[in-house]
Amino acid sequence: MNLKKMVSGVLLLTCFMLTSCQNNDSQTNTEQKSQKNQEALPGPVVEEKKEFAVLPDNIQWLTNDTDPVFASEKAKKGGILHSAIMSFPMTFRVVGPDSNGSFRSAFTNNQLSLINIHPNTDNILPELATHWAFGKDKKTMYFKLDKDAKWSDGKPVTAWDYVFTLEFMRSEQIIAPWYNDYYTKEIEKVIVYDDYTIGVKSTKAVPDLHMKLGIGPIPRHYFNKLDETFVQKYNWAIVPNTGAYQLSDFKKGKHVKFKRKKDWWAKDKKYMKNRFNVDTVIFDVIRDFNLQWEYFKKGKLDVFGLTLPKYWHEKSKIKIFEKGYAEKIWFFNDQEQSAQGMWLNQDKDIFKGRRLCYAFAHAMNIEKVITQVLRNDYFRLPQAFSGYGSYTNKDIKPRLYDIAKVTQLMMDAGWIRGADGIWKKDQKRFSVKVTYSHEEHTPRLVVLKQEAQKAGVELILERLDATATFKKILEKKHDVAWMGWSTSIRPSYWQGWHSDNAHKTQTNNITNTDDPKLDKLIDKYRASLDAEERIELSRQIQLLIHETGAFVPTFMVPYVRLGYWRWMALPEFNGTKRSDSLFDPFSSTTGGLFWIDTDKKIETLKAKKDGKSFDPVVILDEQFKVE
Questions:
Q1: What's 15's domain CATH number?
Q2: Distance, CA of 213 to CA of 215 (rounded, Å)
Q3: Does the pLDDT of residue 44 top 90, yes or no?
Q4: Residue range of the domain that includes 609
Q5: Judgement on whether residues 218 and 315 belong to the same structural domain of the protein
Q6: Distances from the Cα of 75 to the Cαs of 140, 265, 273, 560, 587, in angstroms?
């Protein structure tokens, strides 16, 4: 996981990650025009007087040039990757209004951080810094910058770009309150010792300090003095970056193109070599998932996700796979699992008592959905924080479908079965609305609705578009939210489970959990610097969350499943422990491992035209599967 994602702002609802707003503007920006735009925006930067601090004595510099590489020496440069997005991004900015869409990662993943994490060993890796050290105050890290590092316009990356990061992120002109708050309350300062040596200081001591302080730079030479025109002025600006690719061309509402930097400064670095191989990445706007499938079948898209069972088992039974023109892979990874499930709003009268929360959970036949709808391809998620290694309480098991337990819990709470079979008490029926956004999820919820009715619980299915769903949930107007959260390397509890964020809108505590005992543990967890103590607190917190009954875990998908044309080449090991997309072109953590075999593409297209075939290929890779 890339360290810059650790401070990426609010957590995203995973059910909305493919959505963003449309822009049908037909204006075209060629690469030449984009480059002119990039050069035209900045004004002259007044060079400030440089003042250097004195580096503390006895610093123990660390680096990592001994971990195994995770790229293939067989990789070849060249070719074009054809991919698709559901809608055109609303902006190319990565902060400010409308910037938190799914396409944002195409820009953030092309902006390197000081350090990163090895996707198999989880050790620190050099990125824009060659060396690092930890301060005795447990709040400061020191970094030696790589003097080879360059912005895409050729300017060197220096210490002053990191000083500008704080100035930029704290500015009210970027209209990004979360970043204003974070870079003020969490990052105290950047200290400059010389043009290529810095310290980054946290406002408080925290565990896993490297996950917080490995920040990225912002090109101070590019931006004018920030003012109220920032949002509009930089909405479609192509800002210099440090990664392997730069946006080169776009047509609003139609496509976005990126080109590989042939003279990229890091191309021969140990952990970057033989990666980021394709010359061009084209994202075409194809607004319908089924239409994307049609494009893939015609070879207009190189890769297509086959996670949904109907695509893997049924729709892929076609000639391009049977004749070996395209191949399939089922690759298991080992990383933190999204908290996918049903989130009960405890501010609703029906869920104010734990008995009814437990009864609701026992009325949800998740296993039947897995077997009948999902072909046993998905796995039951045990609890909200699975896959975090020693931080996960593995003794916690989900509440299973059990009508007898529902009956006992409801009777103990003074409810009786009504004439229609639904539990009732004082003219109130056990009837709740489940709010969700994806049509693909309707068959799953239909089964849950049918099975819940047998247990005396009525589910009313409410499908809204992604924006309306997101709005309703964050305004805490839902009964039950059907959704999941994105993850980070360590469990984070305060946003989603502390009473500080309950009973108010626009917070991640969408269950409105308000438990003083849980608050106390979460506060201790946040303050603790001892790993063993935090692990024990984490397990206790998870048990208390389980006891609230406010979250009903549903499914986890600890793998990636893809169809791809046979000219798309993977390394012999296919992917890393943390790979969640084997054909991700950009991520500095796990991306850019594939390449395009142009000879194979010519061979495949000729064979397809001549009616010749190859042996079909279906790969099952379980090297990282967790039993």
A1: 3.90.76.10
A2: 5
A3: no
A4: 302-334+558-621
A5: no
A6: 39, 19, 10, 21, 17
Q: Quick one: pLDDT band at residue 198, thresholds 50, 70, 90? A: very high
Same domain as 311, residue 352:
no
Classify residue 284: in a domain, yes or no: no
Residue where a domain stops, chosen among 556, 581, 610? 556
Q: For the residues 417-423, what does the mean pLDDT come to?
A: 97
Shared domain for 490 and 575, answered yes or no, is: no
**What are the tens digits of pLDDT across the range 99-149?**
877 799 999 999 999 999 999 999 999 999 999 999 999 999 999 999 999
The reply to whether the predicted model has a pTM over 0.85 is: no
Same domain, residue pair 324 and 225: no
Dist CA 481 CA 548 (whole Å): 16
Tell me the pLDDT of the chain averaged across its residues.
91
Contacts 24+ apart (CB under 8 A), 589-593: 589/1, 589/2, 589/116, 589/117, 589/119, 590/70, 590/119, 591/109, 591/275, 591/276, 592/71, 592/244, 592/275, 592/276, 592/277, 593/70, 593/71, 593/72, 593/75, 593/275
| Size of the chain, expressed as the number of residues it contains | 627
Measure Cα distances from 455 to 362, 412, 479 in Å.
9, 15, 18
Judge whether residue 289 has pLDDT over 80.
yes
Are residues 569 and 540 part of one domain? no
Q: Does residue 279 form part of some domain?
A: no
Give the pLDDT of residue 99.
86
Please, are residues 310 and 378 in contact by the beta-carbon 8 Å criterion? no
